[in-house]
Amino acid sequence: MNNKHVIYINNQPISVTAEIYKEYWKSIEHERYLTKQIRKTWIYLDHLFDEYENNTLEIQLIEDLDPTRNEALKMEQYETLYKAINKLNPDEIDLINALFFEDKTDDEYAIEKGVNQSSITRKKAKILSKLREIIEIS
Question: How far is 114 from 120, CA to CA, in rounded Å?
Answer without folding.
Answer: 10
